[in-house]
Amino acid sequence: MKRRTMVRTGALALGGALLPAPGRAQDAPVLVSLFLRGAMDTLGVIAPHADRNYRRLRPQLGVPAPASNDLDLGEGFALHPAFQPLMAHRAHLAFVLATGLPVANRSHFAAQYVMEHGGESSVNTEEEGWLTRLVRSLGADDADLGAVAIGSALPDSLAGSRALAARPGRAEAAEPSVRALYDGTSTGESLTARIRRQGQGALRLQERLRQLAALDRDSREAFGRGGLARDLQLASRLISSTGVRVLALSHGGWDTHRGQARTLQARGRELSQALTAFWSSLGDHRRRVAVVVQSEFGRTAAVNGTGGTDHGYGSSMWVLGDGVRGGIHGDWPGLSERALFEGRDLRVTNDYRAVLQAVATSHLRAPIEGFPSAELGIL
Amino acid sequence: MNVVNQAPWLAALALALACGSAEPAPAAPSAEPASTAAPSAEPEAPRESVEAASSERRAASQLLRRFTWGARPAEVERAAADLEALRRGLLEPAPPPAYEGLPADQSAGSLLRAFPPTPPREERMDAQGDQRDLLRHLERQFIVRAIEGEGNVVDLLTDFWFNHFNVFASKRRIRYALPDYEARIRELSLGSFGAMLRSVAAHPAMLEYLDNASSVRRRSGGRGLNENYARELLELHTLGEGTGYTQQDVRETARVFTGWNLRNVDGVPTFEFRARAHDRGEKTVLGVRYAAGMDGGERLLAQLASNEHTARRIGERLATRFLSDDPSDAVIARLARAYTESNGELRPVVLRLLARFEDDAETKFKTPLEYVVSAARLVGAHVRDADPIRQTLTRLRMAPYAQVVPTGYSPRGDDWLSTAGMVERFGFVERLLAGEAGLEPAESFGVPVGESVAAVLAWAEDHAGPLSAETREALTPLVGPGRRVERLRVLLSSPEFMQR
Lengths: 379, 500
Hints:
The structure holds two protein chains of two kinds. Chain A is built from ten helices and twelve strands. By secondary structure, chain A is α/β, with parallel strands linked by helices. By secondary structure, chain B is mainly α. In chain B, strands 1-2 form a two-stranded antiparallel ribbon. A two-stranded antiparallel ribbon of chain B has the order 3-4. A two-stranded antiparallel sheet of chain B has the order 5-6. In chain B, helix 1 (about 5-15) packs antiparallel against helix 16, helix 2 (about 55-65) runs parallel beside helix 21 (about 455-465) and helix 14 crosses helix 15 (about 330-340). At the A-B interface, helix 3, helix 5 and helix 6 of A face helix 19, helix 20, helix 22 and helix 23 of B.
């Protein structure tokens, strides 16, 4: 049983720690984790148009065989047209197919919880998030702004970490009287002293994030509309001006039970435009960064009665990075009746943790303890 | 307060309150050697107490901070005038304040009629219609009750036992069964633990949450045994991890509870013992054999409730929630003994918890729920719109009914102490002061005029306990009616108010 008390880090490094150490952190590899919440319909986004069962299962909502090669991912797969901007990165954007939890769970909350804690099947898994463990493996758990969640709250993947949540946009500075209350040094291990240190760190880091989070309007347009655009704009800014090593982002609205065609069109545009703008905004920092996109599970292979799809199993994970070998990866289990999981869902042939481990090992050089590894050939 | 001073009020309290119970009143703590008091783990920085604060006022402040959701304006002063009444009142809860968004009858059937679930039954992230509305109302009701309720320990015990027997509102249709589940826990929070355990075991909320609803004897093909409930019953609800039971015991326990399932009665999931789904074979748990039938499960629950490991676990959990993040063995043993001596009655255990708290308790970091609710109560707030508070609690990762895992929210304060949490607490204070927290505070936030430094510090100590030199210094210039908002900001943001 892996329940255990969270290990708390002691004193914050005080003062002078805000700027990355020269020549060190600015060279250090960075992970951007983007979680698509609600279960992205992989079969609607990366279409196996060469699989003859696909047309049978998806008489509507099926993505047709690409007319030209501007949506062709090769090996019989094509990208949904709304995601077309991603084709610009095809050389270093890997799509790993048929990924997921080793044991199926069709509850959004449970599946997200298990995945974000790096578990296998049960919610009774590690109390810490998988990114929390990664940050420690990177040796960045004591660094200021070593990990940042973009959004209003820390996601489960950063549970038990020192990470802060930052929202893009202008925010008020802390009141002088509160700053004064937490001014000065605080030693000792009394509860009051420990609270004081956390409070000091909070005010200091919050001020730094506040200054960064006031985004400039000039580059806004390229990122497009919507929350994800703003979030990725802030992420880019944090990468270029702080020593951040791990960034966690979320994008919601993928639970397409009905009217999926319209929703996928909107989400696809938003995601691919923002991600493309993010990637180009990084400039020289690009070589340091890997982006991993994942979702809690896939959706039913067949269309349901309301122009949508229901909760399924096999999903896909996308990895973007300069060192990434682009294109289709992972064992494709197929869509024949016998190949489908419980006769209805894409099977899982690639443990999601093996994909994360590949990125942690090859890109970040910081393997995650307990995660299985597999030869995926993506990095 | 010393032992000699405590005995009379404890005896009076025990007499007044134990009369409903057949069990004898707990032994007066003076019978125990004083040396069993918990040694303080860390030498705290010396904190002076304000001269103005009488010992009664300090006692009232401590009781209200530790055994209620927090004191309201002038409540400490009032309570200090009659400490006996305060102590009695803690165990005599008034009915929870009304919440208008839900029907008076909060049975699952009534809620299913008021909030008809939308097909498909699949849990969805968005557009759940009435089902989502019901959950919002339950969350709001929780917040209104905590902020507007009369201060008493039963409210905290209900929350404590709910987390001990945690269920997750968004799994399937558990939300419809939640108010009933919580009400039963509340009813028994000063009653018999065995009765609570039995009530939980057969409740639709728990049967759904830990999947016993679908646990049946093995048949060829189809469904079979599900060990989820059995495992948590032993590990979390009763004995505790590492107390000597084996995987074989878990499996046998699961077999004992096969057939403890649900049946739809007029669309309402209702407990039913399905004899045909029950495994009638021989089972042995912890060396004891259990007969086939529903009676086997009942007997196993009773055995577990009277097990000494269960007594110790309950003592440890209660001590951790109310007294200290790291309670001493002596404190745990004392509570476990009270549990065992009373055959699992909880009132004597709670009385024991209250009896020596001033010796046994160490300050704890408030959980997000304790912090937000105590701040709202301090300003005498009426809840105009509970959603901003809910959002704050979500950002603090402690929204009502939202804990996915069966361990519930941690009762340890230290588990909640983080930089991100402090950022969010400071932000909440500013929203509260700016009128953006959905609260209607009392006039001038219920902050007294504060004509002198002594009066200002006495008010602060009423709500936050002894103050550090830094906080005293920050409060000292904030005298007079014009500085009330600033005074409140400093107090709510201070390290002391973050503690209970």
